[in-house]
Structures are given as C-alpha cells and as structure tokens.
Amino acid sequence: MVESYSKNANHNMRRPVVKDEIVDFMRTRQKPVAGALKELEAFARKENIPIIPHETVAYFRLLLQALQPKKILEIGTAIGFSALLMAENAPNAQITTIDRNEEMIDFAKKNLAKYDLRKQITLLEGDAVDVLRDLTETYDFVFMDSAKSKYIVFLPRILELLEVGGVVVLDDIFQGGDVAKDIMEVRRGQRTIYRGLQNLFNATLNHPDLTASLVPLGDGILMIRKNAETVTLPDPSSF
Ligand SMILES: C[S@@+](CC[C@H](N)C(=O)[O-])C[C@H]1O[C@@H](n2cnc3c(N)ncnc32)[C@H](O)[C@@H]1O
C-alpha cells in the first residue's frame, strides 16, 4: 500500500479537458504498453500514483523516436514509469531523473535496477531546487512533471541547462481547466498553482526566443523549444 497518494489525490487527472469519449478513444485505440511498463502502469493505477496517462505515453513514443535526444533531464520520477518509457524510445539517450519523495525513490530504485537494462537512467535524490543548481551538464530534452506552481521557479535554470534547439515538455498545465477561468472562480486552495501557471504562460507563450505550444493531452502539456543561447524570462511582477 502506497502512502504518498490517497484515493482523492490527482484531482485534476479526473477532470479531463477533452471530451470523455475522445479521452476514452485515445486511451483504448492507441497501442498499449507492454512488459515492464504494463506492470508499472497497473501498479500506479492501483495505488493512485500519478504517472502520465496513455494519450501522453503514445505521444511521447512518437516524439522521442522522432527527436532521438541524447541527454534527457526529468523532474519528477515517481516510480520510474516515464523515465523507462523515454529510455525505451530513445535508446541512445542518457537520462537523469530527479525526485524528493522517499517512498517514490524506493520504488524507482527497485524498478530501475530491474528494468533499465541498458543502464541509461540515473536517479538523483533531493528537491529539484537544490539538485538543479548543482547540475553541470547540458540537455537536449527536459520533461518537467513535478509540482506545477514551481514550474516557473525552475524554468530559468532549466533554460540555462538546455541546449539551443532543445525541447522542454511541462505536464499538467491546464489545472483541470481552471487556467482558463478568472481567479475568483478557482477554489482558494488551488490559487497558488493558478498564479504559478499564469506566470508560466505569461513568461513563455509570446517570448521572442522560444517557440511554445499548448497541447491538450491528459491535463495539458506545454512544449517549449529554446531558440537562442541566452533566454531571459520576464519578471513575473511585471505582468
Ligand atoms: C506526477 S509524479 C511523476 C510521474 C512520472 N513522471 C511518470 O509519469 O511516471 C510527480 C513526482 O514529482 C516529485 N516532485 C514534486 N516536486 C518535486 C521537487 N520540487 N523536487 C523533486 N521532486 C519533486 C514527486 O515526489 C512525485 O514523485
């Protein structure tokens, strides 16, 4: 029994931003996962651990096979599902993945020891705030799948670590549709996340040195390509 995630966790994952029947279609018609990923997906579903949904899995397969990144950074390992998916579809990539939750780290260590057969994945333990500061290498693909309110906090450092032409994917950015509402219509407990996401959109969607796209998969992903060596994000207080 996993303690980190209750039955009521992952509230926004049960508020799809796309029609239910289309979500169902995407989840049932696209090639299922197999082997280790199937086992981990079933475990995550049973224990309410928020791994990427199947429509995002199918998209990641195609994206990673097409891009073939060599150096991947992930924030938010959980049990290692998305890291193993990326390893499978970018077999020449080295993947660094970060998590701070001890329970998830224990599961991830066991799963990576068992299933990361090409030894592509390195798990770094700790809060991303600290771990990111100490990284010295650069990356050509970054997957951010951690606390949403912190995306805008981590992004300046991520953009320093990202090569020109590299891509960042940020998961769960629609907040179950709340981002399109006025803040007064958003539950009080959700407003810090709402503000963080609005600052993220304000900083990136029209930036001259970034190409950005919002994609309605799962609870939404934001994809960003870095187009210049130095990218300075505007100060959120200027919006
Ligand atoms: C949505 S889960 C990741 C799921 C995983 N990417 C997958 O799809 O298989 C989010 C994870 O991010 C981790 N996390 C959240 N904030 C973090 C932070 N500031 N530093 C490190 N890990 C963090 C949590 O502990 C949790 O395991």
Automatic annotation (TrEMBL):
Residues reported in the UniProt entry to bind S-adenosyl-L-methionine: 52, 82, 99, 127-128, 145
GO biological process, one term: tRNA methylation
Record-listed E.C. numbers: 2.1.1.-
Swiss-Prot/TrEMBL keywords: Methyltransferase, S-adenosyl-L-methionine, Transferase, tRNA processing
Lineage: Bacteria, Bacillati, Bacillota, Bacilli, Lactobacillales
Description of how the protein assembles with itself and partners: Homodimer.
Matching Pfam families: Methyltransf_3
Protein name: tRNA 5-hydroxyuridine methyltransferase
Key word Membrane present: no
Family the entry assigns: Belongs to the class I-like SAM-binding methyltransferase superfamily. Cation-dependent O-methyltransferase family.
